[in-house]
Structures are given as structure tokens and as C-alpha cells.
Design goal:
The chain is an all-alpha fold and about 900 residues long. Among the domains are: about 55 residues, no CATH class; about 130 residues, no CATH class. It contains 32 helices and two strands. The protein has a two-stranded antiparallel ribbon. The protein is flat, with a radius of gyration of 55 Å. It comes from Caenorhabditis brenneri (Nematode worm). Component of the exocyst complex involved in the docking of exocytic vesicles with fusion sites on the plasma membrane. One of its GO terms (cellular component) is synapse.
Length: about 900
């Protein structure tokens, strides 16, 4: 307690603040303490001082208790801190002592080194003198052991060390040890081993540059050959042994150390040949060895492939094996080219010669030309051409009578080994893409365009192959179009056999274009010729089926049909009528985009049927335009032929466009710039147009024939409706017991025959195009022909209604629809049964929406003619016609 008796008050313990917070807290506590002291000193009342004093003492005691408790709780931590401090202090003292000892030791070493420096210098001079003497003795010993060492190094293929040994030995004999007698024998031995070393280095380089790249690719074939067949051939057995030893000890087949080996060989040769002339001579010798080795390895490759494919005299290879062979040879030459490129870089650095790669590819081209000549059978052609002489020109398309320059080949034994399949000019299809890539590689590497191989192939293609293909195509298309119009009875009844055969020709030409793309313009010209010939043939077929015997001086719409002319063909040939029919939505849905169903409302369908019916009735609905049976196509085989012709040509057009679209981009670009001139059968010219445009034009012309066939079928079935329904307007005896007239039965029979013969040929959308709208047409015909009907009795009126019902029933069985348009025709004639002429006038206001003004006039006229009283009154019809016109005018 303080002297005033006031107990101190302990300060409240809070969480330890951050440095900034702590400073603020300290300042606040100092302010509080000053305030307490100020209150004690300035307070006048003793009691107030005692209260402040007691409060301070109480706080002091509480603070003391709190401090004791904290010290007690953290006593262990304080002790650990003291122990750690003592340990750190002791370690620092030890480190200082060790550093002092090291400093003393360094001073001692320095003093000792200074004392021994003079002694070491003296000993070094003595050692140099002894070393010079030993070196001379060692050189003599090395020279004595040089031949055996060179031999061992050659055996281990350490050519650089062997070359260094030879060079050093020659330098010693001719230099430092030239005055030593008795070294002539060693000199001759070293010279002999020098020549052996050069031969071994060249042999190794040939193996690395030619043999190993070729055999590396042959290993894949060797692994697939049964061991019993491998044992039958010495080379295959050696190659199999190499592959097994290579897999065990890491042979150079993997190519991991080929670059270092080539570098070692080149450096060894550079070491052995001091002058540029000597090095250049050795490179030329090496290239000649490489050329011979390429020929040998190609023969070995063919041999291995024959054994791998089990090809012998009894089992011949095919073009697939030839393609594999050429691809394999291309890969082998590419691998060898990489090795020659590495070798060429080193030779250029050493000699300044950059023709190593060029020399290799020239040798490779000669070898490839031999292989190609053997498989394309060029040499016998050349011999036959020389024998035939000038007479060969008469047989333009004979393959045997063409000539092409070919390189000289080896003996017949070599030819027998290098051929893997039967020689044929068409083998070029499978090998040309490979040769094309190879020619591009050659021209890129030797910077020479065109290369010799390209000139060789160009000569063969242009002088031999194109003419051969042209002649064979001419005979094949003649065979395809001869009797090819008949429908084949098979699972595919839609496509004509001639169409499939011509498409096969086009696919063959497409294969030639894609395979021999560099000559795409030549083969595409043949493609256009095939399409043009096919268009001419299809035009002839269509014209034979639709003979034109009308008077050409008259417009089609005014032409009087003869007894052998087909009405539907005349209408199809009429540009205005065909254009109008093809402008309707149902034509677009059926012919242009059959896979996309047309979206038409009932109103749109009604308007479309109305337009078509008005067009047909306006041309054929007159009484004087009577049809005879010869104007109709009654032979269902002809109907089926038109359908097959349509489907075939449409299918053909899709396939041809697919072939054109599948051409590679580079071929399309080439053909876009190639202009052609084509003369068609009708004398029209496709002049100065690109190849794709000419092909598309031919396809469109074929599709126009297809469209004409479909439109003809559409019109023909409607001609049958006219033919059978028109006689119903004539007077006839109604005493027959049949429910309907014979014409209705005949029409139903024709409709079923059409449907049965077309359903298996035409697609559903096209079949629907032909039969849709017949109900509306028949209804319009019944109403239209009512103007030509004579007076109808009650029985005749009922018979007309039954005829309408009969047509509706027969058509509904085909279309599976009610054909509600015929309900309107029945309602038309039902009005005759229930109403007199005046009664009809009375109901005109309510029937105005169901029938047109013309149809109501037909109805009123027929009703007047059928009335027993009014039919005999003069002016009765005119009077009621005026009343009808006034009623109709009021409603407007």
C-alpha cells in the first residue's frame, strides 16, 4: 500500500498487441497514470485521496498475482532459453578456437613450401631430360608394333585410330627416324596395311550408305517369314542372322551411331589422303561402288519380298505386291539419302565437293528406271515397235505397237529376279503416286527439274499409256452401251446396267486421275469423252422411246397429234408447259431435293393442284381434242423403262459429282485451269470451259433427260385420266347393270398398273409426285366435261355420281388417302338429283364458296338440259344464266 493507505490496482492483461498497437496502448496507460497522480495531488478531500490510494493498491496486488502466475506457467520455457543460450555460447567459443588452429597450420605449410620449392625445380629438370630419352625409345617400339596395331584396329573398325597410326608411322619413318637403318620392312608393311585400311573404309561406307539403310527395312519382312522358308535362301538366312545378332549386341541397324561412324570414316580418309586430288579420286570410286551396290540391293529386296509373299512360278504376285515393293524401295532410298546427306556435308567440308547426293540420286534413278521398265513391260514394246516399223501407226490404240525410250537393262537373269508381278502397262496406276513423291524428292535434293526419272515416266505416259487407255475406253464404252437399255432383273431394279458400266469406266478414269495426278488433264479429257458419248446414247434412247411425228412448223400447243405420237412426250418437249410444271413446289420436292420433304399447307396444295389442272384441262379439255389409244403409252415395260432411266441418270449424276468432289485439291486446281472444247450430239459446243465445268455441264444434260422422264410419267398418267374420263361426257345407254362405266374400271386398272410397275423403281417422293393431284384432276375433269354432257335422266345422274365414287375408291386404294377432292365432284352432281334449275339458283349463295362461277354455269346449263320442260323452252337457259350472273355479281 502507498503512504496514503490506498492499495494499488493491477492493470488488466490483454492480448499482446502489435508494435504499433503496443505503442498506442502504452501512451494510453501513461495518460491514465498521470490522471490518477493528478487527482491525488490536486484533490482537496482526504477521503477522495484514500479512495484513489486503495484502488491503486488493489490493482498493484492483482498485477503481482498475475505476474507470479505467468512466471510460474512459463518457467520451463525460460529455463530452455537459458540452456540454449549456454549451448550456443559454448559452440561459438569452440569455433573460434578451431579457426585459430587452422590459421596456425596454414602459416606452417606456407613456410614448408617455401623451403621445398628449389628442390622440386631441380628434380623437374632432371625428369625432362629422362623423358626425352624414353620418348625416342618408345617411338621405335611403337613403330615396331605399328603393323599389328593397325591390323587390330581395322578388325575393330576403329578406322580413325588406324589412320592416325598409319600417318604417324609414315611421318616417323620419313621424318624423325629417317636416318635409322633397318626400317624398310616396316615401311612396306605399313604401306600394305594402308591400302587394306582404305578398302575397308570404303566397304564400310558403302555398307552404311547403302546396305544398312536397305536392310533396315527388310528386317520387317524377315520377321514375318517362317523360318523354314528363310533357311531355303542364303541371303535371307544371313539377314536373319544379322537381325538376331543386332538385337543382342546393338547393331548399327538402329542408326544410333551411324553419324559418328560416318564421321570417323571420313576423317580417317582425310587423314590417309593428304592431297585434294587423292581424296576426290577416292570419292568417285566410292560412288561407283555405291551404284553397283544399289543395283544389288534392289535385286535382294525383290528376292526377299518374293519369299515373304510366297511368290514363285506357281503363285504370281499382283499389283498390290508391286505397290509394296515400290514403297519399300522409296523408303530404302530415302533412308540411304539421309546417310548420303550426312556424308556429303562432311565431304564438302573436306574437299569442297557438293555432288555426293546428286551422284547417289542419279544412280538411284537408273536403278528405279530398270525396275519400272521391267514391271511396265516397256522393252518388249520397243522391240515390237522396231519390227513393225511404219505399219504400227495404223493401229492407234494398240498397246503393243507403241514406243517409249527406256534405259538399258541387265541380263535376263537380272530381269527375272527384279520382277515381282506380271508386267503390265496398268501397273503404273499403283506405282505412279510413289514415283511422283520420289521424283519430287529427287528434284529437291539435286536441284534439277525435271529429273531423269520424270522425263522417263513422262515419255511412257504420253507416248504409250494415254493412247492405250483411250483405245480400251472406246471399246469398253461401246460394249457398255450395246443393249444396255434393258432393266436388269436383280435386287437393284432401279439402275440400268449400261449406267453402272459407264460409271465403272468413270471410276477407273477417276482412279487414273488421282493416281497419275500429274497427267490429270489428259485423263479428264477421256472422262469428258465418256460422258459425252453416254449423253449421246441416252439422248438416242429417249428419242427412240418418244418419236416426234408432229408438224414442226406448228407450235406444240396447236399441233394435231397423229395416231403414233405420244401426247405426254409432246407436252414434255414443250418448253412453256414443262417450265410451268417444273415451277410447282411438288416438282422441286420430288426431283431437286427428294430427301427434303416439302412443307406445304392444305391451301398451298390446293392452289398447286388447281394450277396444274387448269393448265392440263385448258389444253386437253376441249371436245375436239379427242385422244386415241395410240397417243398413250400402254406398254408398262416402256413406263418402267422411263422410271429406270430417270433413277439411273439421277443416281449417275450424284455419283459423278461425288467423284469430282473427291478429287484432291491439287488436281481440282489443275483442272480449273485446263480449258476444253466439247461438241455435243445436237451440234452444241462447250467451248473454252474448264474441265469441272464441262463435266458438270454433261451431268446437267443427263439430268435433264432424267427430268424429262419423270415429267413424262407425271403427264402420261394424267393423259390416261383424260383418255378414260372424256368418253363419259357422251350419251350412252344407262340400262347396264354395272355400278360404274367400263371407262372407270379401265382407268382404275391403268392406275394400278402404273403403281405396281413404278413402286419398285421410283423413290417414294417421286412416286408421290406422279400420283398426287390425280384426285383433284379427276374431280375437275368430271365437272369440266359436264358442259359436254347431253340431257341426263335420273338414272344417268346417279350413274355419274357412282362413276365419281368409283374413281375415288380406286384411287384411294393406291394413295391410301380419301382423295377428298372427288367429294366436291360428287357434291356437284348431287345437286342435279335434289334440285331443279330454279332450285339451283336458290342455293347459289350458299354454294358460291364451293364452286367457281364457271362451274356453277356448267351446273345450271346441265340442269336446264336435263329438265324435260325447260330444255324445250327457247331462252330458258339464257334467262337463268342472267339471273346467275346477277346473283354472283351481288356477292362480289
Amino acid at each position: 500500500m502507498s503512504e496514503h493507505g490506498v492499495a494499488p490496482v493491477a492493470a488488466a492483461r490483454r492480448q499482446r498487441p502489435m508494435p504499433t498497437e503496443r505503442s498506442v496502448a502504452n501512451s494510453n496507460e501513461a495518460g491514465l497514470l498521470i490522471n490518477v497522480i493528478r487527482s491525488l495531488t490536486s484533490s482537496v478531500s482526504e477521503d477522495q485521496r484514500e479512495i484513489e490510494k486503495s484502488r491503486l493498491e488493489k490493482g498493484y496486488k492483482e498485477s503481482g498475482v498475475l505476474i507470479d502466475r505467468l512466471v510460474k506457467n512459463h518457467q520451463q520455457d525460460v529455463e530452455k532459453c537459458l540452456v540454449s543460450f549456454r549451448d550456443v555460447s559454448a559452440k561459438i567459443s569452440n569455433c573460434r578456437e578451431r579457426i585459430h588452429n587452422v590459421r596456425n597450420a596454414l602459416h606452417t605449410v606456407k613456410s614448408l613450401l617455401e623451403l621445398r620449392r628449389d628442390d622440386l625445380k631441380k628434380l623437374w629438370h632432371e625428369n625432362a631430360q629422362q623423358k626425352s630419352v624414353c620418348e625416342i625409345m618408345a617411338k621405335l617400339e611403337e613403330l615396331r608394333e605399328a603393323p599389328s596395331k593397325i591390323e587390330n584396329l581395322i578388325a575393330k573398325e576403329q578406322y580413325q585410330q588406324a589412320a592416325d597410326t598409319v600417318t604417324e608411322s609414315k611421318a616417323l619413318i620419313n621424318g624423325r627416324l629417317s636416318r635409322v637403318e633397318g626400317l624398310s620392312h616396316l615401311s612396306s608393311e605399313i604401306e600394305r596395311f594402308s591400302k587394306v585400311l582404305i578398302d575397308r573404309i570404303n566397304e564400310t561406307l558403302v555398307n552404311m550408305l547403302i546396305v544398312e539403310p536397305f536392310e533396315k527395312h527388310l528386317l520387317h519382312i524377315i520377321r514375318t517369314i517362317p523360318e523354314n522358308r528363310i533357311n531355303q535362301n542364303t541371303y535371307c538366312l544371313s539377314l536373319y542372322t544379322k537381325s538376331r545378332s543386332g538385337s543382342n549386341n546393338g547393331s548399327s541397324f538402329n542408326g544410333s551411331s551411324s553419324k559418328s561412324r560416318i564421321i570417323s570414316c571420313v576423317e580417317a580418309l582425310s587423314t590417309l589422303f593428304r592431297t585434294v586430288e587423292e581424296r576426290s579420286w577416292d570419292v568417285d570410286r566410292l560412288m561407283m561402288l555405291g551404284k553397283n551396290m544399289i543395283d544389288k540391293m534392289i535385286v535382294n529386296t525383290v528376292l526377299v519380298m518374293k519369299i515373304g509373299a510366297n511368290i514363285d512360278e506357281s503363285n504370281e504376285g499382283d499389283s498390290t505386291h508391286l505397290k509394296q515393293l515400290m514403297q519399300l524401295l522409296s523408303n530404302q532410298l530415302d533412308s540411304s539419302s539421309l546417310q548420303h546427306a550426312e556424308f556429303g556435308i562432311l565431304v564438302e567440308k573436306q574437299l569442297g565437293r557438293n555432288d555426293v547426293l546428286t551422284s547417289f540420286w542419279r544412280s538411284a534413278q537408273s536403278a528405279i528406271e530398270v525396275v519400272v521398265s521391267e514391271h511396265l513391260d516397256i522393252n518388249p514394246l520397243l522391240e515390237k515397235q522396231n519390227v513393225m516399223g511404219a505399219t504400227s501407226r495404223k493401229q492407234l490404240f494398240k498397246f503393243e505397237n507403241t514406243a517409249c525410250a527406256a534405259p538399258n537393262t541387265n541380263s535376263s537373269n537380272h530381269r527375272a529376279k527384279a520382277v515381282i508381278c506380271k508386267p503390265s502397262a496398268y501397273n503404273i496406276k499403283v506405282i505412279f503416286p510413289i514415283l511422283s513423291r520420289l521424283m519430287e524428292t529427287i528434284e529437291k535434293n539435286i536441284n534439277d527439274s525435271p529429273c531423269e526419272l520424270r522425263r522417263f515416266m513422262h515419255d511412257f505416259v504420253m507416248r504409250v499409256f494415254v493412247e492405250r487407255v483411250k483405245g480400251e475406253l472406246a471399246s469398253r464404252i461401246e460394249s457398255a452401251l450395246r443393249g444396255g437399255e434393258a432393266v436388269r432383273i436383280s435386287t437393284n431394279k432401279k439402275i440400268l446396267p449400261s449406267c453402272e458400266k459407264v460409271l465403272s469406266l468413270c471410276k477407273d478414269i477417276h482412279d487414273l486421275i488421282t493416281s497419275i495426278d500429274l497427267y490429270a488433264d489428259r485423263f479428264s479429257a477421256l472422262w469428258i469423252l465418256v460422258l459425252t458419248d453416254y449423253f449421246k446414247n441416252m439422248t438416242d434412247v429417249y428419242e427412240k422411246m418418244t418419236p416426234k411425228t408432229s408438224d414442226p412448223s406448228l407450235p406444240t400447243s396447236e399441233t394435231v397429234l397423229t395416231r403414233c405420237q405420244k401426247s405426254s412426250a409432246v407436252w414434255t418437249a414443250d418448253d412453256d408447259i414443262s417450265r410451268l410444271l417444273m415451277s410447282l413446289p411438288n416438282w422441286h420436292a420430288a426431283s431437286i431435293s427428294p430427301l427434303t420433304p416439302a412443307v406445304e399447307s392444305e391451301q398451298d396444295v390446293g392452289e398447286r393442284n388447281k394450277r396444274e389442272s387448269e393448265l392440263l384441262i385448258g389444253n386437253w379439255g376441249q371436245a375436239q381434242n379427242s385422244l386415241v389409244e395410240n397417243n398413250l403409252i400402254m406398254d408398262m415395260n416402256d413406263i418402267k423403262m422411263f422410271a429406270s432411266l430417270h433413277e439411273s441418270l439421277r443416281w449417275f449424276g450424284v455419283e459423278i459429282r461425288g467423284l469430282v468432289d473427291s478429287l484432291p485439291a491439287n488436281v481440282k486446281l489443275m483442272l480449273d485451269t485446263c480449258m476444253v472444247q466439247v461438241q455435243l450430239k445436237d451440234g452444241q459446243m462447250i467451248d473454252n470451259k474448264s474441265v469441272p465445268f464441262a463435266i458438270e455441264d454433261c451431268v446437267r444434260r443427263l439430268e435433264s433427260i432424267a427430268d424429262s422422264c419423270l415429267l413424262l410419267l407425271h403427264i402420261e398418267i394424267r393423259v390416261h385420266c383424260f383418255f378414260h374420263l372424256a368418253p363419259l361426257a357422251k350419251y350412252r345407254n344407262t340400262s347396264s347393270n354395272n355400278e360404274v362405266d367400263p371407262e372407270v374400271v379401265a382407268l382404275g386398272k391403268d392406275l394400278h398398273l402404273f403403281h405396281d410397275n413404278l413402286k419398285d423403281v421410283l423413290s417414294p417422293s417421286k412416286l408421290s409426285y406422279i400420283f398426287d393431284g390425280l384426285g383433284h384432276l379427276c374431280a375437275s375433269l368430271f365437272i369440266h366435261y359436264s358442259q359436254f354432257m347431253p340431257r341426263l335422266t335420273e338414272a344417268a345422274k346417279k350413274r355419274v355420281c357412282r362413276n365419281v365414287w368409283g374413281v375415288q375408291q380406286r384411287l384411294s386404294r393406291i394413295t391410301n388417302r380419301r382423295e377428298s377432292e372427288l367429294d366436291r365432284a360428287r357434291a356437284f352432281f348431287d345437286l342435279l338429283l335434289d334440285n331443279s334449275p330454279d332450285g339451283i339458283l336458290a342455293i347459289v349463295p350458299e354454294k358460291r364458296l364451293h364452286f367457281t362461277a364457271t362451274e356453277l354455269s356448267y351446273l345450271l346449263a346441265l340442269s336446264v338440259r336435263s329438265d324435260k320442260v325447260l330444255s324445250n323452252q327457247p331462252g330458258a337457259l339464257e334467262k337463268r344464266q342472267m339471273i346467275l350472273n346477277s346473283i354472283l355479281a351481288q356477292k362480289k
